[in-house]
């Protein structure tokens, strides 16, 4: 076989192509840092949900986040925020008008979900 520039190039491309085969995609479920246990949120207030973005995988299957509320280990319908970057590390939300109580948690969904420590939600006049 005559080794032409084009056969060399195409074999190089082939080699590179083999190395470029994507790895299986990583599931990214960052740890929620805020809110924390003992926090009190007031209905109608703006609060910031924060999560740890210090070690994201190289490939993220789903780059968008969704924030939901969980009470007594039950994830409630509806979202407090959605379609923000999961790499942003924080998102401001408005505390929804839900029943006053303890055992609320924030659920952050990316590829999968993870929840915050439990906190309390009250109405303004109860402070
Ligand atoms: C969820 O967050 C906790 C810390 O709050 C962490 O230990 C755990 O590994 C996380 N779960 C997943 C599936 O990443
Ligand atoms: C929620 O789950 C935690 C951990 O599994 C458990 O300790 C707690 O009793 C549960 N709370 C309710 C209200 O079911």
Describe the structure.
By secondary structure, this protein is mainly beta. The chain has a single domain (25-126), classed as Coagulation Factor XIII, Chain A, domain 1, CATH 2.70.50. The chain is 12% helix and 38% strand. The protein contains one helix and ten strands, in the order H-E-E-E-E-E-E-E-E-E-E. Strand 4 (64-71) and strand 5 form a beta hairpin. The chain is elongated. The N and C termini lie far apart (85 Å).
Tally of separate domains: 1
Q: Mind telling me which CATH architecture this is?
A: Distorted Sandwich
- Structure class: mainly beta
How much β-strand is present in the residues? 35-45%
Topology as a string of helices (H) and strands (E): HEEEEEEEEEE
What is the CATH class? Mainly Beta
Radius of gyration: 22 Å
Distance between the termini: 85 Å
CATH superfamily: chitin-binding protein cbp21
Bound ligands, each once? 2-acetamido-2-deoxy-beta-D-glucopyranose
């Amino acid at each position: 076989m005559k080794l032409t520039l084009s056969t060399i190039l195409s074999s190089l491309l082939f080699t590179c192509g083999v190395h470029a085969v994507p790895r299986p995609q990583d599931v990214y479920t960052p740890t929620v840092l805020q809110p924390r246990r003992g926090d009190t949120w007031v209905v109608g207030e703006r609060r910031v949900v924060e999560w740890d973005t210090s070690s994201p995988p190289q490939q993220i299957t789903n780059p968008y986040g969704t924030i939901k509320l969980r009470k007594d280990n039950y994830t409630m319908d509806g979202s407090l925020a959605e379609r923000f970057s999961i790499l942003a590390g924080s998102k401001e939300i408005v505390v929804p008008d839900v029943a006053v109580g303890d055992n609320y948690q924030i659920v952050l969904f990316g590829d999968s979900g993870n929840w915050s420590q439990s906190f309390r939600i009250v109405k303004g006049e109860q402070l």
